[in-house]
Amino acid sequence: MKAKLLLLLLLVTTSIVAQDKKEVKEFFWGAKDEFKKANTVPDKWKNESAVIIHKREHYNYHKFGANVTYTSAIRKRIKLQDQAAVTEFSQFSYKTKFYSNKAYGSGFWRRGTNFIGVKVVKPDGKEVEIDAEKDSKEVNGEQKLAIANLEVGDIIDFYFYSIEPFKSVYDYSFEAVETPLGDVYPTMDLKITLETENDFFVNFNTYNGAPDLKQVPTKNSGERSYELAEKNIEKNEFPRWFYPLAEMPCYKFQVIFARSGKFEKLADGFLAESEKEIKKTVAKGDIYDYYNKKFVPSGNLDPIKDFLKGKTFANDEEKIREVYYFCRHEYYTRYIEAFVVNEAKLFYPFEYYGYNPIFFSYEESFINYFMYFLKKNEIDYDIIVATPRYNGSIDDLLIQGNVTKLIRVNTKNPVYLQYFSPYTSADQIDYTVENSKAYVLEVSKGKRVTDASTVVLPSSTYQENSYKTITTLTLDNFTGFSIKRASSYLGHLKENEQKDKFNFYDYVYEDYKKYGTTQLLEYVKNKKKKEQYTNELTALINKMKDKQKEAFEKSTEEEYEFDVDDYKFEIKNTGRYGKKSALEMEETFVVKNNLIKKAGDKYLIEIGKMLTSQIEIDQKEKDRKNNIYMIYPRSFENEIILEIPAGYTVSGLEKLNKKVENETGGFTATAEVKGNQLVIKTFKYYKNYYEPNANWAKMIAFLDAAYQFTQEKVLLKKN
Fold this sequence. Notes:
Low-confidence stretches: 1-17, 96-110
Number of helices: 15
Strand content: 25-35%
Structural class: alpha+beta
Shape: globular
């Protein structure tokens, strides 16, 4: 009986899925498909690699009793006009919950029930439908689908469709969608449809000249339908150093489900007065109302009190910085070892921290705690609400998830505090929001937010965000080099390098030692278990160190664009306890059969390549039309020392002396012989966060100079 019931259930489920699959196919390719026979493109786009004849995005949010269902879908019908496009669309990859391919787009493949449809339309109108489920193959955890026999002039028509259920939802913020209107290919026709009903709040707006979202009449008063349509959209260029949402026609939206008035107040977003309205803007009052409810001074300050016992500080600024670094350990890095152990399934570690240990996992918990500390110490402060520059101006803020929160402590020299990572520094503002307009939530007597105003956040300089390196080269019998490199990083370059290079053991044990806290394994009292866990954790760390070394070596090879051998490294200073404390590293490695060419009794040394690879601007990039958006000002200072073998002299230094500087940045290089050493010094810097396109040629001037330096050589010859 159980077997029969199971078989019946399987048949019913299969039947439902088959029906859904048929309905999805009908939704895109059915009788109402007005683009079924569309196969021509405008003359102005005849020379484009491909043209999107039709692009459709569809979003549907509905509730069914206690459950909510989110549907997202995309369809593209694309004409392939050259071999590059044919190659691009001949294969794409997808996973069970996600698909990715530059040509096919990304972001719609999710958990739940998913459908994919692909067909090829030949120039004579013949349609060949691909069976994606049958023809795809799994490779390294991904499904690979090859589209055979594609030719120039073909049309490829595909869709992805996902139905994602949420059970027992009372309030929920769905993932935001923020994207340029255009695509990498020109688009003849674009349609975006959005369907919701009661209890769903919609934040939606368009920017930089994109058309408005329009409401479409529906038969049911509780349901709402919206549409955005546009024709003849030129292709988008996405060059380096560019923020598409800051300039390109684009749209942003988020849907928030809140089942009743109670949950509307708790909802994680900026809601309109009614779900019947589209919220298009977020004003200062919205900011104030939302965060006035979120930020309440609270927490247990006993750990800080214990930390401060017997300590004196020159001023409040010094005290705040030291408390910040202590709390970063007490409420963050102290538990990271446990997370690693738990993820590796060595043992369950959290039972050793007592009942309800405090771990700051959100910005709000961090801010509320520091509000309480500053209030109790009668230190004036404000809360900063900002949005990353790549999202556009704070004036266009729409999505609550795009907000970054900081505390500004109003000491003589203001101290900015941001939510912890293992590497954050007091005084250092998140680089994505510095030099941008932000809201200041003014706090009265350390208790509640009383008002909101605007401010431009401080900037950092290229001198503060710096990388310095000294590279010493010793010839190995003229067949290669032994190389020693000492590097230091400051500012945002330091934090990025720490994130990229460090594993937990690089900083967790450093914090244990600094603050005298108990390591995880010290909590284990059972001798046998402690020995077992220690051996297992040591083995895990050794394995991670091997992978870390491999990653460092690979990174070095990518920097120089040639192979290295016998690679070793040492982190001399983590740079984690102050903005002015540098991350310092030393590396040694060998370069064989590279950079040296023999010419009779002379040797040609490709010394310029020791600068590491530089940006080469091709003609397409030189014709750039977009403005330039930098992550932050920064500088790179290099000293390269070549040990000159006894009995040899070096020539060709004149090409190693360069100087190109202007208001956008610069590159300078000097070379001279000092005793038995050739000493080369270079300095490259980017001065600003933003450059208008009119300054692009000035940037190219110093970028080209730096690249040309990497092509230069010197000659070693006998005396």
